Predict the structure.
Amino acid sequence: MKSALLTLFVSASVCLLGTLPVAAAENTAKVTSLMSKDLPNYPGKEGLMISVEYGPGGSDPIHKHDANAFVYVLEGSIVMQVKGEKEVTLSPGETFYEGPSDIHLVSRNASTTEPAKFIVVLLKNKDAPVVLPVE
């Protein structure tokens, strides 16, 4: 339950504050809101661009996005997996996609010694949370 509350707090804070370092016992992440834009051709929808930085060994708990999420790796390597698919390791310049119904089982830094950084572009319902915890 603590993890779910932390995730909801982080989501709301990122939208309101822009940058928020997150540190929990099992993970370290810094999420920065880069841009948010209403999509007038798609009433009720918005585009949100965030950067995510994982410290060495950093990860996120199991979650989902009620959004289309497009990931682009900038630095380091990250490991991603959605339910029903194989785990993949991504390096700079590589991409990953999550659909609105995907459950994101694995999202972590592939290295325990180097940081990793990636960009996520989310196409989502306006004012919907960025992250939804999955128990």
